[in-house]
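[Q] Does anyone have a clean structure-token version of this?
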Amino acid sequence: MQVVITAVGPDNRGLADPIVHSVTGMGANIAEIQMYDHDEESVFSMLTRIELDPARFDELRQAMTEVARRTKLSIRTWSPEIIGRRPRLAICVTYRPEPALALLRAIRDEHVKAEPKLMIGNRDACRGLAEQFGVPWFNIAIPEGTAKASGTGSTAGQASSGTRGDAGTPDDERMIALCDEHEVDFIVLARYMRILPAASCWKYAGGRIINLHHGLLPSFPGIQPYHEAFASRMLTYGATCHFIVPDLDAGCQIIYQSTFTVPPGMSRDEIIRRGQEDNEPHCLVEGVRRVVDGEVQLHFNRVVARKA
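[A] Here you go.
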């Protein structure tokens, strides 16, 4: 079976060796290794993708727990070969409800065979959507007048309460703690308009974070792709569903793109309306479906078709 191991923590010597020795000692074949040192932050990050005898998966997880204890690394051991249950999703939102609504409907209608374990927002704009579909809701915006929460411990499992900051500044560590607590397989950024820090990307690396970008990559990677395309007098607009890697909108991890063509002279507002209400939701649903159905995977930061 294929297994992805991620490790993130304070940089030090000899952090990779215990992981490599443990997996090779179990007879695993190493298919991919990526390592990165965040020098300015003194953070070490590592991804290891292996092929392992399924009978030894529990043993591997125990071994990684021991390595984490000794090295103080945050280690996650996960397999994309999900058996006996449906993939668990964390759906992250900010303002726009259309993509998340389309995904929840697709799950309800059995078009996307996944389980929405929780919805996470840095605003309360989509809280009603979570309540409509009976999905637990968590607002991770840091409350006004408080220091940044640690995102760990008992606070991770509590529903949001209190006054949230107008800036909507998210507690990124709490997002990861919530996903860990709910044993999420994939984090879906359904027009979640905040950049994940590199440490969060590494913790769920290996094709576990799916993002909807409301423009065609790599041509329009910015925060206002409709405006940029309109200024370039484009007649074709689109959206991109892609895996997240630490490089924002790098463009090489595209799962699915959908486009629509407009006639000359259509107003920018009408183009944006069509994109947000129709094209973006379709793009997200099809992208997530391809991932949870096991049609594609991320390998060395490149999207490839999985072997039948």
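[Q] Thanks! Anything notable?
[A] The chain has two domains: 2-78, 88-305.
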